Amino acid sequence: MRLTNGKYVIDRRLGGGGMAEVFLGRTIGAEGFSRPVAIKCVLPAFSADEDFAKAFKDEAMLTSRLTHPNIVSVLDFSRDDDGRLFLVMELVNGSDLDALLDTGPLPFSTVIHLGIEILRGLGHAHDLPIGSDSVRGIIHRDISPHNVLLSWAGEVKVSDFGIAKARKATSATKSILIKGKPAYMSPEQAQGAELDGRSDLFAVGIVLFQALCLVPLFSGDTPLAMMSQVWHAPIPDPQTKRPEIPRDLSRVVSWLLQRDPSQRPQTAAAAIDALRGCRDYPKDGREELATILSQRFADRAPVRARDLAHQRITSYQNAAQVTIVAPAATPGPTMTMPPGRGSSERRWRWTVIGSLLAIGTAATAIAVITASSGTPEPAANTRSAGDGPGTPPKPPTPDVHVQGTTVPAAAPVAARPEAAVLVDAGTAAPVAISPSTSSASTSPPPVPATALEQKAGPAGATPAPARRPAAPMASSPSTSSPSVPATALGQKAGRGTASPAPARRPPRPAPTSDGWTEPLLNNGR
């Protein structure tokens, strides 16, 4: 551990390259304030070169203007006590994309998420607003899996703008020296031609090709051999290398890998839109990436990140269930319910119950009001319209027994049996009619046969139909109705050959002094 410029403490070395090495450090502030940072120290030989030091300072000033979630932030620039240049950057606690690709193939949705996040960071650098120095954008020129950092939380950040080149508002950038890794260069960058943001898009296409096909697009034993492939080697369709790659995703990658810059996406935003239109575009790519990192770097990922990843895996498999167990003091059954319901389900249940109660209450009230407003049935012993003011109420009408069949006297005529005639024409014997309370053995006195022929007319005349009997009313329950003489039926029969008049409905019996009625026959009108 050593102090750097009195403001930072270097703890250990993280890695290095041909020009600089990176250390894990932390800030030293008042009252014990401290923050972990990454410190990039330039090697002594390059720090002593004035031209290199000036270029490094200018590029550090440019990258300090880049503030974006997908770009590693530059926090400070200075020299240490030994005169070495150093750059203080945001510390990304995780891994780089190169180490993740070494663990095996990635889901297509994760590759899409990685491409979109890289393009977002580059798009911000390419579209940097014009400042006082007339700079209108920064070209990275060194996009590779080593310079894409991944945090355990699933963040994707583009780092190492150390050889980035500012693009003036009047022209594109052009370098005399070729900078960058040959295997990830664009054809125009390998030729030393003028560059713009489309050069970085070609490099993103190389990274995505490697993530999908699991092999580098360009390879060679020497940098010159790799650059020759960049210039002349055929660029295959990713689906020919790995047939299971979705066709839409393969087309987007092939679009990024067009050698002619005019045939590529013209902006990072256009490439992002194309990736978002793929069928495997993830709903939550950040959580998906965090899950994969926790699985493949279980020995390095923090415990909290692994726990969160386990929950996400369970959720993706649609097997997550929340078990609620009653307290030990009041044991009860275990209830299992899917996640995310809880109080909303209870509110919905009480809403349905309340609605049903309200509907039942309203239906009951309507039924009560309807019943109370109905017309009550008249009493059985009310007077009829033809009764006089002094007529007493009628007593209940007893049942009538006709040839072994009991028929209520108040029933309509159509409901009574056809055998309910007063006189049997075959035997000239009267039919027994008595109240239901009378004895079955009681019968009226016989009627003389001559009475039936008293008004019948000549021999060829049609006999008069039998009259319908009047409903007999007994003066007391134990008294039988008197029989009706057959001669009374023929008093109004027609004379000669005229057809007899139809039977009239008998009038209502007259009341007696004790309130009961005696049956009378209609002798006139």
Give an overview of the whole structure.
Helix 4 packs antiparallel against helix 6, helix 4 packs across helix 11 and helix 6 runs antiparallel to helix 9. With 525 residues, the chain is an alpha+beta fold. The longest helix has 31 residues, at 343-373. Among the domains are: 2-90, Phosphorylase Kinase, domain 1; 94-282, Transferase(Phosphotransferase), domain 1. The protein has helices at 44-47, 50-63, 97-101, 108-126, 187-190, 197-213, 223-232, 238-241, 247-256, 268-276, 285-296, 303-316, 343-373, and strands at residues 2-4, 8-16, 20-27, 36-42, 74-79, 85-90, 94-96, 135-139, 148-151, 156-158, 165-168, 322-324, 335-337, 399-402, 405-408, 423-424, 429-430. Strands 1-2-3-4-6-5 form a six-stranded antiparallel beta sheet. It has a three-stranded antiparallel beta sheet with strand order 7-9-10. Strand 1 (2-4) and strand 2 (8-16) form a beta hairpin.
Order of helices and strands: EEEEHHEEEHHEEEEHHHHHHHHEEHEEEE
Q: Major beta sheet, specifics?
A: 6 strands, antiparallel
Q: For the residues shown, what is the average pLDDT?
A: 73
What is the CATH C-level name of the domain at 94-282?
A: Mainly Alpha
Overall form = extended
Number of helices, counting only DSSP H or I runs of 4 residues or more: 13
Structural class: alpha+beta
Rg result:
56 Å
Indicate the multimeric state.
single chain
Number of strands: 17
Label the CATH architecture of the domain at 94-282.
Orthogonal Bundle
Poorly predicted runs of 5 or more residues: 168-178, 320-342, 378-382, 400-405, 410-429, 431-443, 449-462, 471-498, 515-525
Kindly state the percentage of residues in helix.
Answer: 25-40%
The CATH superfamily of the domain at 94-282 is known as: Transferase(Phosphotransferase) domain 1
In terms of DSSP E residues, the strand content is 5-15%
